[in-house]
Target: ABC transporter substrate-binding protein
Amino acid sequence: MRKTLIASGAVAMLALGLAGCASSDDAADAAGATEWPESITLSLVPSVEGEDLAEALGPLTDYLSEGLGIEVEGVVATNYAATVEALGADQAQVVITDAGSLYNAIEQYDAKLIARDVRFGATSYAAVAYTNNPDKYCDDEPVMATYDASGIELSYCNGLEEAGASATGQGPKGVEAFEKLAGAKVALQAATSPAGYQYPVVAMRDAGIDTDADIEQIPVEGNNNAVLAVANGDAEVGFGYWDARTTVTSEVPDIAEKAVAFAYTEMIPNGGVAVANSLPADLVEELATLLDEYADSSEEAATVMFDLVGLSDWTTDTAEDEITRYGEILAQFQG
Model:
């Protein structure tokens, strides 16, 4: 009996020893999984060029380096697609990029969306349908509302905005009017433009309009020219971002009379920040917090942010469903 007990005790001790080894191995694996790298690389497409670039990028990377306690290096991508390629090749672990590239990074490389771009207080915007024929497309009298970003009063109908109030630009609204587009000349931008082509075309198709056969497409370059085509009578309807009419007020002071906004498409997402899935979760969490707080960290930070990437803020409210929807729309225009 004693021999049996000793043997049993030996087995028990061996089992405990193996369990101890397993626990140690698990702990080591867990520790390795959360170990921070000595440095990370951030890739972006800046708004500035040439010799101003290092000066513009430095304050952001310095701020992130100090906050994280590791080196953050900034590199410039030639275009938004290049940021995704850099992430996939592990040449960058953080990318600041547009909505389409965020979608591709998530789908192709399982990247994590951690922040969204904020412009003028919003993370998304609508494409706007403008017309010089409000009698046809408006079910009510146009009203004037203020576009706060520029302080200009502009015209809206179909309940898009409240008279005398600040315009909100929230869509979709008024898209039922697209059913009246058959036979119209419509100013459309390049097929790669979300506000000037993609979202408007999807909205028109949803309203039963064959955009190849039912309308005459008037090709234009840029949002300003889409508005000018309507103001000058070259097209009955044109599409641009909210609110592109502010870009032509010096040329057309009475643009509110010559181009009335009558519909908003569904919202188009701004870009944002995505990270490689190889980064430790606690590092990603801290990085997201730092980005969320950057614009308010100093007066210089707010200026740098606007000059570097044309933004007023980042937010950790990522609304990833908007990015997913953008990907669905993008797929309709890819071969």
Q: What stands out?
A: Residues 124-269 form a domain with the D-Maltodextrin-Binding Protein; domain 2 fold (CATH 3.40.190.10). The chain has two domains: 39-121+270-331, 124-269. DSSP finds eleven helices and 13 strands in the chain. Residues 131 and 237 are 5 Å apart (CA to CA).
